[in-house]
Design goal:
Length: 190
């Protein structure tokens, strides 16, 4: 069945991001022909791996441009499909889709979805993806605790994240962790 909403969203998100079909294909790991077929509505169904990789590739765009609801639609579509990990690339894409969904849920104050997606992302990341994905998933678990005003465990988790990002020499995530940790400490002490 043709999903007009998602095909139009894919095309619009790709164009608003200034990406060609080839560039989106390269960043998502999907083929350019697959992107073209999805945009044209010719694909009968979105495969889980393809949809997860597209969500991971477009997630930062949805966040930075404040297209949170558009991104949430895609995330929910990807996450509603049963997970079948045929390789580590698909597993890593699922982890990223889950923590990007947690990020979008954070932005719209959907605390239950934030908690669920972040915890699922962390559990899956611990099963065997890279250390960076695991640290990012843990960051969103801590962020969810902070949003729910559960400051003490949030502080402990965020301190762990900070240490992991230092170890990974990842200044972006280190800075973001510092920022959230400062919020936690400010509210925790009050």
């Amino acid at each position: 069945m043709r999903n007009i909403s998602l095909t139009a969203t894919l095309r619009g998100a790709r164009r608003r991001q200034g990406l060609s079909q080839a560039a989106l294909a390269a960043s998502s790991g999907a083929g350019r022909v697959t992107i073209a077929r999805l945009e044209a509505g010719a694909a009968q169904d979105f495969r889980l791996g393809t949809l997860s990789r597209l969500c991971a590739a477009l997630g930062k765009f949805w966040y930075t441009r404040s297209y949170w609801l558009e991104g949430s639609k895609w995330m929910q579509s990807a996450l509603s499909k049963p997970a079948q990990y045929t390789n580590m690339v698909e597993k890593a894409a699922r982890v990223r889709t889950l923590y990007l969904d947690a990020n979008l849920a954070y932005q719209v104050d959907d605390l239950e979805r934030l908690k669920t997606s972040a915890e699922l992302s962390l559990a899956l990341a611990r099963e065997g993806t890279n250390q960076r994905d695991s640290a990012i998933a843990k960051f969103y678990v801590a962020s969810g605790m902070y949003k729910r005003q559960d400051y003490e465990p949030a502080c402990l988790f965020m301190e762990q994240c900070l240490g992991e990002f230092r170890e990974l020499n990842d200044p972006y995530w280190e800075a973001i962790s510092y920022r959230i940790l400062s919020y936690i400490l400010r509210y925790h002490r009050n």
